[in-house]
Amino acid sequence: MSNRKCDVALAHLKTMVSLWLASQSPRRASMIKDAFPDAHCQGLEGVDETPTASGTVAEKVASICQAKANAIPSDHGYDIVLVCDTVLADPDELNALMGKPNDAVHAATMLHRLSGRRHQVWSAAGVCVHGHWSFFTEYAVVEIDELPDEVLVDLVLNESWKGKAGGYDLAGPMGVHAKIIDGSTSTVLGIPQAAMDVLASIA
Questions:
Q1: Which of 44, 119, 157, 162 could form a disulfide with 91, with the two C-beta atoms 3.0–4.6 Å apart?
Q2: Beta strands 132-144; 118-129: pairing state
């Protein structure tokens, strides 16, 4: 079979696998649709994202992810279901979380605390393949430059903080002011690399 015919056949196989990304994150959707162009991307409603576990950040983000997995109906009808959650570890208290900003003032406070410092970004994912769940939790270390006041103001006014843990989006405007010191880009953007590897092996 020619390379062209192989590519066409593989693309057809990908469309035959139905996948539900149970997330409203456009970053996650973009990553998933590279491998599963027909993936259904729709977040869950009414899931309490308060961590049910105490202890480490890893345990907390994993507990949120587990709650999302528990909310998936058994009759969902997809070959694969993916649930995810991402949190930031507080740079001043490693086992505390920095959630999503409530408003612009909250976002400005978060960004000011992260300015000129390193922090951990944790992502957890549950992958359900034909009814069988596997869970993954990973972290990456991100360093943010010292942010001048005018940059902080711009980051708040452009509203790129909305819906983002820690108040920033590495793939958005913050990308020119931050770099990954350790770990993978996919983990920072919302899906652990190990989960992406599993999906790639299926696709």
A1: 119
A2: antiparallel
The CATH class of the 3-202 domain is: alpha beta
Summarised one tens digit per residue, pLDDT across range 70-117 is 999 999 999 999 999 999 999 998 789 998 899 999 999 999 999 999
The dihedrals phi and psi of 141, each to the nearest 5 degrees, come to -105, 125
Torsion of CA 163, 168, 173, 179, to 10 degrees: -140
* Contacting residues for 124 by C-beta, under 8 A, at least 6 apart: 58, 61, 62, 64, 65, 84, 85, 86, 135, 136, 137, 192
Copy the structure tokens of residue 122: 């944790």
Distance separating alpha carbons of residues 102 and 161, to the nearest angstrom:
10
Please say whether the beta carbons of 185 and 123 come within 8 A.
no
Reading phi first (left if > 0) and then psi (alpha if -120 to 50, else beta), residue 191 is in: beta
Dist. CA 46–CA 37, nearest whole Å: 27
pTM of the model: 0.87
